[in-house]
Design goal:
homodimer; eight-stranded parallel beta barrel
């Protein structure tokens, strides 16, 4: 059972699918975001979903009705999970969970870029509390800030935690797991590696 | 010169383009969001952009690099403007503005659904201040809350204000303009009308 999620930030659909085929044995899932959908189309979600689980990283931050429409599309294309923002409040999250069906809804608890300190960070606890209350499946918390990850783990109860930022962004795989992440999200360190399969395997072993 | 922006929330591309053709004479621009892009593809942006100005309502809320990639795609497909969240902080907004080129960047100052009170509303002033400082072109503020719109107008200086929520959601066109909106955003009241052209014309005249 792997703890590695591949962030598939590759615009070229053929290359993206190749990387997934090469590394799938060592992956828990693949995360696909807007830039790739905008260049490759939502068909990339359908195609990767035939190989492994797909989490749509759409960071949905809209009113409830629009949220519902976006989540429904992710579901229609075979995604197993979707990432939404919590800062837009309880009714938008409710709409996401109601529209998700069997899909797992992950709420952004905290982001890792400097601007996350401007407005978001003081609300991490409130967002986690809301996510718990509404019944979200999991949280997104930064591997780049282990002490925050540990704090979020304390607050999260049994919610699953996915930790992006491992590798090029500076987060360490083993450390993230030890601080409470259930899964680490890794992009460039795998797909820009000369041997993506070996890179995925190393991360897989590191997090066993 | 019209003050009406059509929110083109129609998944059927042919019908969407028909509505734009019928109403264009009375429109300032057309707003296109994720649900439509997910079902019709980004080609809908290219096609509407041949008829009138397009604002991509992507409510981007991501780290700077992902923000840049999303904004670049909107620009590549001919959009004239893009809507981003300010909540994610100054560096994400900076990335959006830098990637936008001639495109106008609009920052969500406040949303109108109940959940917007959970975390966002206390930050309206801070977000406007940041948007001003970073040189954003405009703001999004709710036509459904005229007193908030008026307050946002006071803080916005010369920034352009687009006000969604007119029509079915309860906002009034004339009132929004009088409280400081430069443009009103209207969806269902136009495209679900028996005569979309007449509905757009009425709103156009109401806001002269």
């Amino acid at each position: 059972m792997s703890s590695v999620i591949l962030a598939l930030d590759i615009a070229d659909k053929r290359r993206a699918l190749e990387i997934v085929e090469e590394t799938k044995e060592y992956l828990h899932a693949v995360k696909i975001g807007w830039p790739v959908v905008l260049s490759a189309g939502m068909e990339i979600v359908d195609e990767v979903a035939k190989i492994t689980e797909v989490i749509c990283d759409f960071k949905v931050a809209d009113i409830p009705n629009t949220t519902r429409l976006i989540v429904e599309q992710a579901r229609r294309h075979g995604a197993s999970g979707i990432i939404v923002h919590g800062f837009v409040g309880h009714d938008s999250l409710r709409a996401a969970i109601d529209a998700a069906g069997d899909m797992k809804v992950y709420v952004v608890a905290e982001m890792s870029h400097p601007g996350a300190l401007d407005f978001m960070q003081p609300h991490t606890e409130g967002i986690i509390e809301m996510a718990k209350k509404e019944g979200a499946y999991g949280l997104i918390a930064p591997a780049t800030r282990p002490e925050r990850l540990r704090r979020i783990r304390e607050l999260a109860g049994s919610m699953e935690i996915l930790a992006p930022g491992v590798g090029v962004q500076g987060g360490k795989a083993r450390e993230a797991i030890e601080n409470g992440a259930d899964y680490i999200i890794v992009g460039r360190s795998i797909y820009n590696s000369e041997n993506p399969r070996e890179a995925a395997k190393r991360l897989y072993q590191e997090t066993l």
